[in-house]
Design a protein that fits this description.
Double Stranded RNA Binding Domain, three-stranded antiparallel beta sheet, about 55% helix, zinc
């Protein structure tokens, strides 16, 4: 039972939509992020580009049809999402531990293919009983953290991918870690780049830059949440007015028929005339009603679509802010803020309440 809880806790970190590529429907392999915040496997995007614009500088998202401009090496230069790769690795590892309660897992430290009984978190290897003992005898490995498969299966110890601790290297200086944020260029750079290429720019340490970025994103998320609430309120009001229109329409038809019948009773010689007038008015009312219903339904459909798109976009932003590293957050700052800005700029489609009145 505890094992199931462990798997569930891992899967709850991210939805299936984020764990799997929508193109190949397999779990992510080298996930890349488009400007619309949708993620796909590197190879899937490369094949997609060949089918869309083999020699072009843009790529159309297969989910939302939004275009992403490609730079440098094309698809390969799109932002990496190491957080997704790490989560795929963690979930895959947990499933592997649970399959047959881990009986098929072999030792990765020797060539004897003995059944593994534990895992060394420092070596990132499964160990058999003999290799585990060898670890304990070697001075350099005595400090390594070794946990049994039972501990990993039960959830007592949760496997964490080393990708989460990976520090990106500078493209210009491969031996340098990215550890400075240039506010002027809005990018993460290394110390050498800060001296050679950004000396006159506004520079900030990563912790401070991440906090500022998180604050900006949080503010935009709040604005987007308020817009979603506004859309939902407008939809509720539109639904209310539509119901009022239906009621007024029904009552008006009843009143009209009643009046017609009264006139027929009073003046029999004018029956034909009155019935003809009734038919004419009914037809006109039907026309007006249908026009207004069309207006209400169009407004509802547009607002519903906006709510859905807003919700999906917010989920993408929240997931990225939750799972992405500080480096990725800063690299994606403009994309995040741009997407959220688009959400806050749209206004809900409203229908005048006077259209619900009919008599």
């Amino acid at each position: 039972m505890a094992s199931n809880v462990t798997v569930q806790s891992l899967l709850e970190k991210i939805s299936v939509d984020h764990l799997e590529c929508s193109i190949c429907t397999n779990r992510f392999r080298q996930p890349k992020l488009l400007d619309c915040l949708h993620s796909f496997c590197l190879q899937c995007l490369q094949e997609l580009r060949q089918s869309q614009y083999p020699s072009g500088t843009k790529l159309t998202c297969p989910l939302c049809r939004r275009e992403t401009m490609l730079k440098g090496s094309g698809v390969a230069d799109l932002p990496n999402i190491f957080a997704f790769s790490a989560l795929v690795e963690e979930v895959t590892m947990q499933e592997k531990l649970l399959e047959g309660q881990g009986s098929e897992i072999k030792c990765q430290n020797c060539d004897e293919e003995n059944q593994a009984v534990s895992r060394c978190m420092d070596c990132d290897h499964f160990l058999c009983q003999e290799c585990q003992k060898a670890h304990g005898r070697m001075t350099l490995m005595k400090s390594h953290k070794i946990y049994t498969l039972a501990q990993l299966r039960s959830g007592e110890i949760v496997y964490t991918s080393k990708l989460r601790d990976e520090v990106p290297k500078c493209g210009k200086h491969p031996d340098q870690n990215l550890n400075v944020y240039c506010n002027s260029c809005e990018q993460v750079i290394c110390t050498t780049c800060s001296v050679l290429d950004h000396a006159k720019h506004s520079l900030t340490g990563l912790p401070e830059a991440v906090e500022k970025c998180k604050k900006k994103v949080t503010e935009m998320v709040q604005k987007s949440e308020r817009r979603k609430t506004q859309l939902s309120t407008t939809m509720e009001e539109t639904c209310k007015f539509r119901k009022e229109l239906d009621t007024m329409f029904a009552n008006s038809k009843k009143k009209l028929s009643k009046k017609a019948q009264q006139e027929i009773t009073k003046v029999k010689q004018e029956v034909a005339k009155i019935q003809k007038e009734e038919h004419k008015l009914m037809k006109e009312m039907d026309r007006i009603y249908k026009e207004r219903v069309t207006t209400f339904e169009a407004a509802q459909a547009k607002n519903k679509k906006e709510v859905t798109q807003t919700q999906h976009k917010l989920e993408e932003v929240k997931q990225l802010m939750k799972e992405a590293s500080c480096y990725e957050i800063l690299e994606l700052q403009q994309k995040l803020l741009h997407n959220l800005s688009e959400l806050t700029g749209k206004q809900p489609q409203q229908v005048p309440d006077k259209l619900s009145f009919m008599d």
